[in-house]
Amino acid sequence: MILTVTLNTALDLTYGVPELVPHASHRVSEMSERPGGKGLNVARVLSALGHRTVVTGFAGGATGAVLRELLADLSPQEPTDPGTGSPDAPHAPEPGTAPAPTAPAPVTDALVTVAGNTRRTIAVVDRATGDTTQLNEPGPLVTADEWAALLGRYEELLAGADAVALCGSLPPGIHVGAYAELVRSARTAGVPVLLDTSGEPLRRGIAARPDLIKPNADELAQLTGSREPMRATRDARRRGAHGVIASLGPDGMLAVTPDGIWQAAPPARVPGNPTGAGDSAVAGLLSGLVEGLSWPDRLRRAVALSTATVLSPTAGDFDRAAYEELLPRVGIEEHAPAAR
Amino acid sequence: MILTVTLNTALDLTYGVPELVPHASHRVSEMSERPGGKGLNVARVLSALGHRTVVTGFAGGATGAVLRELLADLSPQEPTDPGTGSPDAPHAPEPGTAPAPTAPAPVTDALVTVAGNTRRTIAVVDRATGDTTQLNEPGPLVTADEWAALLGRYEELLAGADAVALCGSLPPGIHVGAYAELVRSARTAGVPVLLDTSGEPLRRGIAARPDLIKPNADELAQLTGSREPMRATRDARRRGAHGVIASLGPDGMLAVTPDGIWQAAPPARVPGNPTGAGDSAVAGLLSGLVEGLSWPDRLRRAVALSTATVLSPTAGDFDRAAYEELLPRVGIEEHAPAAR
User: Fold this and answer.
1) What whole-number distance in Å separates Cα of residue B70 and Cα of residue A83?
2) Smallest CA–CA distance from A136 into chain B, residue
């Protein structure tokens, strides 16, 4: 199974309004709510790809209870058909022909209950333009005892994990070196670990030598001071990450790894909502790692999934038909060893 | 006791942000949540004035459960000190010297549980300017059985009520003549009834001859087609309301009643947030009616309470010191009978 850690889970609300006008009153015409926070989004995509996933992190209060109910609804009620094979078993298909298995797999709730209230995030979508205004609550104050409970739960879960993703912001009360601590535990347990956060938690986490980080241009620039992708990505690797997959937004991804350097790009720029595209990329990278795919195939999958997420009418979901159509059309360019 | 009916209760969230910028992402720096919907706001003020209040209407789902918890927190844990006297007993103090009793009285939850989720409202406050952007969910779809349960509960509660306020918008599923039905029941039971709503529910409700309505300028104009206060207020009375108390915003109130016509104005215009000022005025009018105050004293109280609500740093609460200071300074002008 793949483990995702979301320390600052969220109940994600989406409000549709005809147009957001500051200082006016708005009647919300459409609304939806779903479990959120980056690691939960990653788990949703992994589940759709057929990978059994366990989510941990914190949840509490009335919003935490709603989040956990919605999370339970995500999982298929019946175990997946054994005839579809074991998606966790490594295999190495031909490049460009390897969509992940399609029977959804369960997402198991291993969240640690906290006294505080899980935060809400509100995405206000202008129906006319599709533009989104985001309001994010800060999250509950997590106590030292609750953090200790999370560490215990995490160690237990690592024992059964094929890979782990550490995702998103830290809630109030959690020390800035928290991800570094979780990276070290994963490395001690021999579980490949991907870190997807930003700012000081990313800087500290990298020094603990995660297998992968997946920063976007802003996160890389904040970390390294450079907006030149190759320079910034290499700098990030020197800081301790074994592999750095830099998101170049609509231009795809740049991967600087111990095995080589690749650039992967979608066949064309696509219009749509980039919300959740990064989380889909993380799911693509981790599922590819667990399945033993080559770097080019992992990157194809990550780029096809994130592009299919931008194309989806529902923010954060991916359009499966678009994904399967895009997968063989993602362009991969290997940089000559001299360029490393 | 005073009964308030809120068919579309709400969990009211207030988010503080440095500045609301459309299409940007915002970290909420301060937040609060409290039970809302006009009738619940009226009950909160009545409780602060020492009047026992029972609230009914609908609540459901996870947000409904939070609303009811917060509502329970509103009530004093101990019964009020019998030494403070009976605030429900009519008495007629000198004009200008009659602040209501100050020991808070309990608010009793008699809400009817529905299957749908109580709506949230979100007030996003720009900390720089104090301006508020409002987002209102539509509310749960109420079924015919749930409406029938509300009618039964309402009839029972009317038997013990000294006055009733019918407040706010209708949730989806409730027929537009719902308030007219509730007005007729109150009149049959001999309980004075105040209707505070807008649009078609107000138009239908007035035809059932409520004792009082308390429209603002926009609601009056929508009802009568006129923005001239005296003309519009008299027209509203001709449509069936026994008394019409028109809110003139910062200029106070115009009361056209069977006993006379009065205009009441605060001593000065005040800066602040008008949210909830109308609900405080309803609480002032109803408490004054139950206490047997004269029209001028009821209007003094309503204007002082609504002005003290605008002045309060917390939207919807009233500043008690300001209220007591303002009360004797509200100006009352009686129109000559010829002007009726």
Assistant:
1) 51
2) B27
- Reported ipTM: the value is 0.83
Instruction: Report the domain count for chain B.
Output: 1
Q: What is the pLDDT of residue B130?
A: 81
Which residues constitute the domain of residue A164?
A: 2-339
Residues of A in Cβ contact (< 8 Å) with B135: 15, 17, 26, 28, 122, 124
d(C-alpha A64, C-alpha A9), whole Å: 8
The alpha carbon of residue A125 is apart from the nearest alpha carbon of chain B, in Å, by 9
Smallest Cβ distance to B25: which of A29, A65, A134? A134
pLDDT tens per residue across span A274-327: 888 999 999 999 999 999 999 999 999 999 999 999 998 777 789 999 999 999
The alpha helices in chain A, defined as continuous H runs, are: 38-48, 61-74, 144-158, 178-189, 199-207, 217-224, 229-238, 277-290, 295-311, 320-326
Q: Is B28's CB within 8 Å of A132's CB?
A: no
Number of H helices, E strands in chain A: 10, 16
Q: Residue A6 pLDDT more than 90?
A: yes
More confident residue, A312 or A15: A15
Whether residues A24 and B133 touch (CB distance < 8 A) is answered with yes
We report the CATH number of the domain holding residue A148 as: 3.40.1190.20
- Nearest chain B residue to A64 by CA: give it: B62
pLDDT one-digit tens code per residue, A181-208? 999 999 999 999 999 999 999 999 999 9
User: Do residue B135 and residue A22 have CB atoms under 8 angstroms apart?
Assistant: no
* HEC assignment per residue over A82-129: HHHCCCCCCCCCCCCCCCCCCCCCCEEECCEEECCCCEEEEEEEECCC
Chain-chain contact of A31 with B137 (C-beta, under 8 angstroms)? yes
Q: For residue A175, how many other CB atoms are within 10 A of its CB?
A: 13
Three-state DSSP class for B263?
A: strand
| Averaged pLDDT, B314-332 | 92
In this structure, is the dihedral angle defined by the CA atoms of residues A21, A22, A27 and A32, taken in order, positive or negative? positive
d(CA B245, CA B223) in angstroms, rounded, equals 14
